[in-house]
Amino acid sequence: MTKDIHSIHIDHVHVDEIDALLSFYVDLFHQRESLTKCIGLSRERMLSIMQMMYAGPNSHVLPQGVCWIARDRAEANRIVGFIVCDDPATEGAPQLPEPLTDQEADVFSAAMALLEEVRSPMTEMFELGKGTCLHIAAIGVAPDYEGAGIATRLLQTALADARTCGFRCVFAECTSLASRRLHEKSGFTSLQSISVNTFVVNGKRPFTDCNVDIHLMQQVLDTGKTR
Length: 227
Fold this sequence. Notes:
- The chain is an alpha+beta fold.
- The chain has one domain: Gcn5-related N-acetyltransferase (GNAT) (Aminopeptidase, 3-Layer(aba) Sandwich).
- It is globular.
- The chain has seven helices and seven strands, in the order E-H-H-H-E-E-H-H-E-H-E-H-E-E.
């Protein structure tokens, strides 16, 4: 069925929408997004951890006002897409939830080390403090709405707001060709890529069965302030 894109409305995520957003997020990413599959959590456990990380008392990600949700007004305001962003330099960025099993702690510790390695070219920018780099953590669109340009609209909304707020750059870790192309169409370039199955931490390769390349994508918004 062809969707009427004119009925799609994009707005900031509000506090009373957080639970619905996280449930939608997990439904889209669980067993579909490459790195999420490699981590291997059950849907219920993934949702529980997401709630602790993004909606817990110590989380300030969603209240930063840099997350958006797309709804279809023609379908009773159904959630059909989202973009979750954060400022890595802002106090209160997502932390590992507690308690974790020993296995979960090992996996999450390795995943955080992996992302730190992927982001390493951005270290100098991070040190400039909050309000410098906007991180695009995730973009998702309901399967029956894919191809309608919703992901592009969400990304463009975040970029426009980042410029208005004075961010100097925007970056994302892309784990699929579709995600990489989406960002490239919006002006991002790849700074580096890392093969997950060859990543080494503490002398071990924790993700040998994960055949995924993560591309660090960046767009400079203010060329006069990046050095």
